[in-house]
Amino acid sequence: xxxxxxxxxxxxxxxxxxxxxxxxxxxxxxxxxxxxxxxxxxxxxxxxxxxxxxxxxxxxxxxxxxxxxxxxxxxxxxxxx
Length: 81
What we know:
Elements: H1 12-22, H2 30-39, H3 42-49, H4 53-62
Helix pairs in contact: 3-4
């Protein structure tokens, strides 16, 4: 069994550097984001940027891009008159 390391406030700058090495900052214009968002599925677009689909939707909303529709799913129940 390994012991968990306890971090202090003085470790924060070092931890931020480690995170930035793993996940570099991405700069993208709203136009580029809109193009990728509309051309790919949400999961593929999120994977493209290395973020979660939830974070992708958050960025799309912040950029003022209208969200996609829910798609055309086959109805499970048909109303018979």
